[in-house]
Design a protein that fits this description.
Helices cover 34% and strands 22% of the residues. It has twelve helices and 14 strands. Strands 1, 2, 3, 4, 5, 6, 8, 9, 10, 11, 12 and 14 form a twelve-stranded antiparallel beta sheet that branches. Strands 7-13 form a two-stranded antiparallel ribbon. The C terminus is likely disordered.
């Protein structure tokens, strides 16, 4: 869930020595603040000082404080840790990062003392916060090497595609970032449509300001798995065209006419399908929602609310429609709960929309690895190494046989919650 930014929360939760260092970078008048009186219950002096900053300086400081707030959470710490592995994680960084300081102070310290790690983490956090990704498998496992000419050609093709189809994208800039897990990210920033906004000028008068912002397209290539993912708020045909452009210039390959389908949810319509987990993993798995389509464009969703199995509830509602062999599972939301020896359990929630879309990205790497392992065992995700057969279609007559492992450690219902249609 996205956290609401609060300037007061950042001031209350951050170490005041670090805050004093932060404000000194924006003003030489920090001695005006009665620092001895500043504490979590009294931040009035900080708020007044911040409000008195010149507007351009205040805007600059607020942008930074928003990023500090964004990274002051478990996901933000994971992004910081991954950024440090990607760039450098020396002894001083490890001492700060693994200290008992609270998350806000760690985030602020990272901006003050490890600016490159902080900026990289903000970028990773933005990637991890993106939702739907279109995935493609069966790609070569190589290390992309792009020279200036290749980047320029990539930018030019994106510009041409967007100009001819949408009338925007007159200028596009592409940047690349490598991650410690072998994933290469390509960020395309094409021009968006012109927007006319009302803003306050220096005299506090409302004036029109015309700007042409950019929007972001992210292409991720996993050099270890040999797969790619694309995230862009564009129509399906344009996402596919962009994917072809990236694959051509980044990997030097032309997309296959018929691509392999990474995800399949047809087994959720099999009443005998029983996913299992190993007791060694200490994980429970639930389905929070399922969306069905009668292959006519009419969909109905079932959402968690109580204490019965969502699939049992779903089967009761659809009844004889299973025999009509028309049902398609359009989407399902999964929730994995990882139990720990002490402290609160960790939760990972994501959605799958077959055949190519999934919101699971770079959360805790250990947890993501476990999730992928089970999705492959249950034949929800294609497994190239195990030669798993994926139906490629979610119609009922294409249902695969229920997975039967040799050693079932623990059979679990895919949701001990009762559900209602929505």
């Amino acid at each position: 869930m996205k956290r609401q930014f609060s300037l007061g929360t950042v001031f209350r939760m951050s170490d005041k020595t670090q805050l004093r260092q932060f404000f000194t970078l924006f003003s030489k008048e920090t001695d005006m603040i009665g620092w001895e009186d500043v504490n979590r219950r009294n931040i009035l002096a900080l708020e007044q000082f911040f409000d008195a900053l010149p507007p351009p300086v205040r805007v600059q400081a607020e942008v930074i404080l928003r990023n500090i707030h964004a990274l002051a959470c478990e996901e933000g710490m994971e992004a910081l840790g991954d950024a440090a592995k990607t760039l450098h994680d020396d002894s001083s960084w490890n001492e700060m990062f693994h200290s008992t300081r609270n998350l806000y102070t760690k985030s602020l310290s990272a901006w003050l003392d490890y600016r490159d790690i902080f900026e990289c983490a903000v970028q990773f956090f933005g990637i991890d916060s993106r939702t739907w990704w279109r995935k493609r498998i069966d790609l070569p496992k190589i290390t992309p090497e792009l020279d200036e000419d290749a980047i320029e050609n990539l930018e030019n093709e994106i510009e041409i595609l967007l100009k001819t189809t949408q009338g925007r994208g007159y200028v596009c800039t592409v940047e690349m970032t490598a991650r410690s897990n072998g994933v290469y990210y390509f960020f395309a920033h094409p021009d968006d449509y012109v927007r006319d906004s009302l803003v306050h000028d220096d005299d506090n008068n409302l004036v029109h300001q015309t700007i042409r912002q950019t929007f972001e397209i992210v292409f991720a290539y996993d050099s270890i798995e040999g797969s790619s993912e694309l995230s862009a708020r564009l129509p399906k045909r344009l996402r596919e065209a962009l994917e072809a452009i990236f694959l051509k210039h980044v990997l030097g390959v032309e997309p296959a006419f018929e691509e392999r389908r990474p995800f399949d949810l047809s087994m959720l319509l099999d009443p005998h399908f029983m996913p299992v987990t190993s007791s060694n993993d200490r994980v429970d798995v639930f389905i929070n929602s399922i969306t069905l389509d009668w292959n006519t464009g009419y969909t109905i969703g079932y959402r968690a609310k109580g204490s019965h199995s969502i699939r049992e509830f779903m089967f009761e509602r659809i009844g004889d429609d299973l025999d009509n062999r028309r049902l398609i599972v359009r989407r399902a939301r999964f929730r994995f709960v990882f139990h720990v020896a002490s402290g609160r359990a960790k939760t990972l929630t994501f959605e799958i929309g077959p055949p190519f879309a999934c919101t699971l990205k770079n959360q805790n790497p250990e947890h993501v690895e476990i999730v992928h392992r089970y999705l492959k065992q249950w034949r929800i995700e294609h497994d190239e190494n195990e030669n798993t057969t994926v139906a490629g279609s979610t119609v009922v007559d294409a249902l695969p046989a229920a997975w039967q492992p040799d050693d079932i450690s623990r059979a679990i219902p895919l949701s001990p919650e009762s559900f209602r249609p929505h």
